[in-house]
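Mitochondrial substrate carrier family protein: structure tokens wanted.
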Amino acid sequence: MSFSAAEDDSASEIHLPADIDWDMLDKSKFFFLGAALFSGVSGTLYPIVVLKTRQQVMLNGISCLKMASSIMRSEGFRGFYRGFGTSLMGTIPARALYMGALEVTKSNVGNITTGRLGLSEASASAIANAAAGLSAAMAAQLVWTPIDVVSQRLMVQGGGCNSTACTVGLQKYNGGIDAFRKIIYADGMRGLYRGFGISILTYAPSNAVWWASYSIAHRLIWGCVGCYFCKKDTSCNGGSVGYRPDGKTVVVVQGLSASMASGVSALVTMPLDTIKTRLQVLDGEDIAHGRPPTILQTVRNLLKEGGLGACYRGLGPRWASMSMSATTMITTYEFLKRLSTKNQESFAS
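Answer:
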């Protein structure tokens, strides 16, 4: 099934490069190049994730600029990369699971919705993308949750988060291995999967909303672009030539669609992300009794601290991180797929 093939809207035709599905990919090249490319993306965006995580565990709201200034002043540039080594270790296998589940689900669901159910390409595309995002997020969380727990605890070490400005329950760790050891010693394997349920509830809908929104935004933007250029070019009106965008236009539309989808997804799932972060980072007020914080207790604490607004702390950095990550991810992902095709000559045109 093609999600970016030529579309026919208002008698205007847009000729886009054919989509590459799972069967066309050289799997070893796809996963190897993907690990390298997305590790670079993760490293570039990691400081924003650190800012978002620290904001979510603060008792009082603090702006991103003040937070960044505090980190730079007390910890230096290194403070923006606390826990990055641990995070990178999990990024590679998690991304491999994510990309594999995404492409397999998208291909299978796409064939079912168009072939057996007879849905239109637009509807089938949105459904297939939503299902693919859902299954990819669930698969990746098997690896990502333990890495998330450790890396987030390392992110909030030092600086302002060791002061009374931060929520109770933070412990001190000397690197990723020490954090793994202490968490397993205190809570067993269950400690590494703390917040797994809320992570699924956060990332699965978030990915489903993102991929469905991306599919819809992508088609809407191309429809507008096609109408605009075909009004300028009289040859489109005859339906014989149509509009054939260049590579830069394709990348711009992909990036804009990704940014719009990120805004929708961030707004819908931000409260769940804040609750998840606190469950994974904080040991709770009842740690002396061996009881980790519950979801209900975490929600009560957030509402007590700042009402509903407390659940949206870090929304700015999260939206920025999601937008930049998604824009980079989708353009890199499409580039990766074209690099990994079994017969690249057939897709050169």
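The first strand starts at residue 7 and ends at 9. Residues 46 and 81 are 7 Å apart (CA to CA).

Cheers.
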